[in-house]
Amino acid sequence: MGGLACVSIAGCDVSLDLLEAVSYGHDELAQRLPALRATSAASGVVVLSTCQRTEVYATWPGQPAADALVAAVARDCGVPEPPVRAVARTLHGDAAARHLLRVTSGLESFALGESEIAGQVRAATEASRAVGACDVVLERLMDAAVSASRKTRRRTSIAAATRSVATVAVDTIVRSRGRAIAGQQLLVVGAGQVAEVVVDRATAAGAKVTVCNRTRRRAARFAAAGARVVDLADLPACLATCDIAILATAAPHPLVNARILRAARPVGAGPLMLADLSLPRNVDPDVRPLPSVQLIDLADLRDATAVEAQDFTTDMAATEEIIEGELRRYLRWVAGRSAAAALRQVHRSAESIAREEIARATGGAPSEVRDVVERALLRTVHRLAHGPTRRLLTAAEAGDTDLVNLLGGLFDPTAAAR
Question: Are residues 373 and 317 in the same domain?
Fold first, then answer.
C-alpha cells in the first residue's frame, strides 16, 4: 500500500516543550488542516493531537511524501525543521496503518490500554471530514482503527481496567497520599472527558470535589456526582483552600503560575499537589520551586507507568491478534479498490470477446438458440476469469502493480488482435 504515510511525534520520545510546540488544539484544526494538506501536497490529512502525541496521517495519489509532511508540520507549527525531524518517526503503507491501530487500541500509550484514545481518533477524523481534508482511504483506515479498539475492549481486560491519563493521575495522587484522599479538598479544572473520570474516581474515594470551568453550564452535570461547581473566575479562591488540584483544559496558555499561587496561598497555607494533564500545559513549570507545592505533569505520569506492560502479556497478545485481523481486512479493501479498474477491464474484455464469438457463431440462428449459447458461453468466460481475478487481487494486496496491469490486460481484444 504505497500512498499512506504517518508522522508520529510521541510524548515518550520528546520533551514536553517540543510536544507542546507541535500540538494542535481541536478548535484550531478547521483553520490549519487545509494549509497542512496543501503544503504537503497530500490528497487527505488527519491530525491526531493529544496530551501524549501529535501524529499526522496523510495519503497521496502516488508514493507517500513523508519528508514533505514533516516539513509541513514544522512550518505550520512555527518550529525549526531540524528538531522536529530529529524526533519525528515516519511510517509508510502497512506500517503506518498498523501503527494507527495500535495507537487506537491503547498499545502505544503510557497508560496501557487507555480508554480515551478511540474517542480522540473519532474526533480527529470528524474534524478532517468537516473541512473536506479526509479522503475515503483515510476515513476507512480510521474506521478500522476504532473497530480494533472496540473489539479490544470487548475481548480483553486491558481496556476493562479503563486506564487513562486521568486514572493514572488519580491513582498516583492516592498512592502519594498514603492511599487515602477521603475528606481532602480536590479541585478539578475543566469539564471534559478527563474531568469526568477524575470526578468519578475522586468522589468514590471520598474526596470533597469542586469543579471549576469557564462555562459553568457545561460543568453542571458534575453536581449530580456530588461535586460543587464554580466558575473559572473563582479559580484563585479555590486554589487557596484545596489540597489537590487536577487541571485538564484546552486553554492555550497556563492558568496557574508561581505568581498566582503566591497570591492565593500565603506562607503556611499547607501543602498543595498539582496534577497538570493538559497540553498545552495548564500549569507553568515555574511553580516547582515553591515551598509546599508538588507538581505532577505528563512526563512524571509517563515515568510512573513505564513498567505497566509487564502485567498484561496475554491481553497484549490478544490485542495484537485483533489488530492484525482488522489490518488484513483494511488492506484487502485497499487492494480491491486499487485493483477495481483492472478487474473491470478483465471482465469487460472477456465478455466483449465472448459476445463477438456469440454473434459470429449464431448468425441467423433462432433467438432461443442464441440465448442458450450466450448464457453458456458467458458462464464459461466468467469461470475462466475467476482464476486471473483471484490472482489479480492477491497481486494488488502484495503491491505488485506490474502483475496487476499484466492481468488487467489478459483478455484485451486489441492486444489479442496484435
Answer: no
Q: What is the pLDDT of residues 121-149, one digit of tens each?
A: 999 999 999 999 999 999 999 999 999 99
Nearest to 278, CA basis, from 167, 171, 174, 195: 195
Which of 6, 51, 77, 212 is catalytic? The answer is 51
- Both 108 and 186 in one domain: the answer is no
* Residue 51 annotated to the active site: yes
Give the bridge partners for 336, in sequence order: none
* C-alpha distances out from residue 157 to 115, 220, 307, 317, 326, Å: 12, 32, 17, 12, 19
Give per-residue pLDDT as tens, 356-415.
878 888 877 888 877 888 888 888 877 887 787 778 777 776 767 677 677 777 777 554
Using CB atoms within 10 Å of the CB of residue 406, give its burial: 0 to 12 exposed, 13 to 18 middle, 19+ buried: middle
Which residue carries 498566582 as its cell? 260
Question: Rounded distance, CA 208 to CA 185, Å?
Answer: 5
Q: 183 is in which domain, residue-wise?
A: 165-304
Quick check: 145 and 96 in contact, CB under 8 A? no
Give the CATH number, domain containing residue 106. 3.30.460.30
Query: What's the pTM value of the predicted model, to 2 decimals?
Result: 0.73
3-class state of residue 390 by DSSP = helix
Q: Say which residues have a Cβ less than 8 Å from residue 368's Cβ, sequence separation at least 6.
A: none
Contacts (Cβ under 8 Å, ≥6 apart) of 4:
57, 58, 59, 64, 92, 93, 96, 97, 137, 138, 141
